[in-house]
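Support reply, case 0932

Customer input (verbatim):
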Amino acid sequence: MRIGIDCDGVLRDFIPDVINLIKEKHPEHADKILEPTSWEWESWLPFWTEDETEKFVFEDNYERLFGPEAHPIHTSAYDWPKLVHWAKEQGHELVLVSAQRPHCEEPTRQWLDKWGFDFDEIHFTKLKQLIDVDVLIDDSPEKLDTFKNRSIERGSPICYRQTWNQECQKKYMTIDRLSDIMDRLFG
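Our regenerated output:
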């Protein structure tokens, strides 16, 4: 089985890193940050327009947010060696399927290397449904829905629980940490 795994929100603790960086660089906004309940920037960063947030994240601070300094989700870093061992024993392949912007791909590769996230394959694409994987572990409601409806392999979406994907948690198998798939999906 080919297991597709997203990066941001599954391996890399992207949203908390964004929040912490805003608090560091713009303390005047610290008390205005809301709980992220969607991928829509303006719904939880109401003090900036979408363009201002995109500039802060993808232009001014992309190396810090996507490169080796970025933080992993602690349970994902902890579970990774166990997951790799299990996948090899069971004959499964671990495939990164991540929608990175072109200038964020190299910092992401450096980040993966630093934290030891070695994959059998790496795919940077927004069209995750076109990648040959049997399941996709992701935190994005949009990506999970598209994968469910258009996967070339008729793959199964698996929701990685986050505050911004509560609706998906009702629709799809949901995990709290990567190691959950070893028992929940494959018994």
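We compared this against your earlier run and they match. Two observations from our side: The longest helix spans residues 74-90. DSSP finds nine helices and six strands in the chain. Please reopen the case if you see a mismatch on your end.
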